[in-house]
């Protein structure tokens, strides 16, 4: 897929998606959001992908919120509703991607950029990066599912505090409250931190990762216990009978026999 505002690269089982609008601090225009939706939708069926790393170009900004110049002509109730729904569709394609998605905060994730970050399963941050749900400074609320996901991630009280105070957190403070999963050490590059974080994930079989993601995604939707049990059982059976499982099981059994 040709993308004007994204750089999409395959690194073995790892897919790298970079928002490439350095001159705009990687702001999320409607065109960028549409490209994100298309990219994640098109790669969702690739059985070889084990994880996705989503980041921004440069070292200053992951995504500096919605592109205000692009969104300035969204004025009516119908236009605002359409914009919100389309952007939510884009972030949902990230949240529901069938294997883990890691947001690599190379810089600030602000407003809509913070909403994009929490749509990912994990957030790994450079030591100098910051994250803030600062929509209130523009007298608006979250619009793309970010407020809901923030509450799910850090709880009601912490989420309300960040939203109502428009707090901008450094990476270490964000990690302290569970908003960020891993922060690079001051002398560690973001790439090295991401590699270290992703390494155990990439050791898993892709079908197993899909099983885990399907179960946790379904649980986020408050799906009934019976449906969750069915999802877990169905994926267990498919991974149990897979050749990858039996290859490892045979290695373990053969090792025990030789002892």
TrEMBL record:
UniProt keyword Protein biosynthesis, yes or no: no
- Gene Ontology biological process terms from the UniProt entry: fatty acid beta-oxidation
As for family, the record states: Belongs to the enoyl-CoA hydratase/isomerase family.
Coiled coil feature spans: none
Q: Which InterPro entries match?
A: ClpP/crotonase-like_dom_sf, Enoyl-CoA_hyd/isom_CS, Enoyl-CoA_hydra/iso
- A Pfam family: ECH_1
What domain of life does the UniProt record list for this protein's source?
Answer: Bacteria
The Gene Ontology terms for molecular function here are: isomerase activity
Q: What is this protein called?
A: Enoyl-CoA hydratase/isomerase family protein
CDD domains referenced in this protein's UniProt entry, alphabetically:
crotonase-like
UniProtKB keywords: Isomerase
